Amino acid sequence: MVAKYNDDDGGHGDISTDRRSFFNQAALAAGAFAGVSTMAPQPASAKIFLDPALYGDQELRQSAVNSLKESVRRAVLQNPALAPSFYQLALLDGLSYDIGTGDYGPDGRVIGAVINSKDTSEYMTNLKKACDVLLESCRNLKKLTSVTTGDAVALGGAAAVESIGGPFLSVQLGRLEPANKKDTSTLDLTILSGTASTAVVTKAFLKAGLTEREMTALLGVLCTIDTVRKNRSSDDWRASARPKFREAGKMGRASEFKPLTEQDIAEMEDEEFEDRDEGWYIADSFGTRDQAFGAKVADDLSEKNFNKYVKELYDSGKKGGNVDKFGWTTAVLLDKQSPVTQSWLQKYAGSYLSFNKDVSVAYNAITQLGAEFTGGKYENLLKNRKRKTLNDFD
User: How far, in Å, CA of 284 to CA of 179, rounded?
Assistant: First the structure.
């Protein structure tokens, strides 16, 4: 069965009107699919237009970005199993691009395809939950401004990486809603579920115009997120390093509370503010990049050791150790038939700086595949400019 949108798009033909009525369009797009796990072909004229000035006021734009990231972070902390799903949504959206024809690309239509899929696997169920979080966040944001589906998916993936302690990923905003919502790509949505062969996964990345180096960096992140998810249960995110006298919101007898000594007060004054919470999560976009949005899923990961699991994977593969704990991505990352992948995996295992840099560039690339810049100076400067691959940055 072919997944199609309803012919009635609500009359939102004007781009400026589209972005101001984002959620209505997103709901129509999501609700009009005919439940399948793949996306069907669209005319060759399909284009992804990107207008960097879409949101206008910088403060309003930043507020919308922070709000969406807070929603993703909260969802991931409450259910760590969703961390890979937000990231997978972004990858799937980008992998829908076909470099041969120039069709499809990361415009957010993956949300509709996922929501209406009849696949009942845990993988697809979690993807649907991630879609619900993004759509709900966008609906709430509509009170102040609008975030397009394409931008929401890209931001969600970046927030998932940051939620486990990964590097800050800069996301280019301004993806316009697709002009033709009737059909979408033929990409199999289960390609990142672990059921596809190594050859099929590799072919999907190459077909989208990505290099093996970029694929290695992106799947290295997915391997890291998936490994973190397996090590973190959904009921320990509220755990606090400090003892609690009483659960937040509960009343108790005065005799149950230990009096504070002068030493206790002095120690509290010496502590950082964020370390004095009682374990509940409060999303806050203020502070440094490392402090923003509160707690993280992986307490032992940061930008300076984000290649930790990539290194463990490489070492285990080299010594013939057990690599099952790293998930299905090991089949691709340790594929002996791909010396390029092996070479870059070794590079990333030995340098977190190289890994973080390549991840940033590769993620920025996959979330812009097939995009054509439009709107004044951006169109004049960037239109028809050939995409730079990671190798061009060396």
Answer: 36
Q: What is the dihedral of CA 158, 161, 163, 165, to 10 degrees?
A: -130
Is residue 183 classed as helix, strand or coil in its secondary structure? strand
Containing H/E element for 373? strand 371-373
Q: Report whether 177 contacts 20 (CB < 8 A).
A: no
pLDDT digits (tens, 9 = 90+) for 168-226: 998 888 888 776 655 667 889 999 999 999 999 999 999 999 999 999 999 999 999 99
Provide the sign of the torsion angle of the four alpha carbons 194, 196, 201, 207, taken in this order: negative
Q: How far from 298 is each of 76, 99, 290, CA to CA, in Å? A: 11, 36, 13
Q: Would you say 85 and 153 are in contact if contact means Cβ atoms under 8 Å apart?
A: no
pTM to 2 decimals?
Answer: 0.73
The residue type at 364: N
Domains of the chain: 15-235+304-386 (1.10.520.10)
* Nearest-10 Cα torsion for 364, 110, 135, 233: -80
Write phi, then psi, for 170 (nearest 5 degrees).
-75, 130
Q: φ and ψ at 311, to 5 degrees? A: -65, -45
Annotate 57-77 with b (16+ C-beta within 10 A) or e (fewer): eeeebebbbbbbbbbbbbbbb
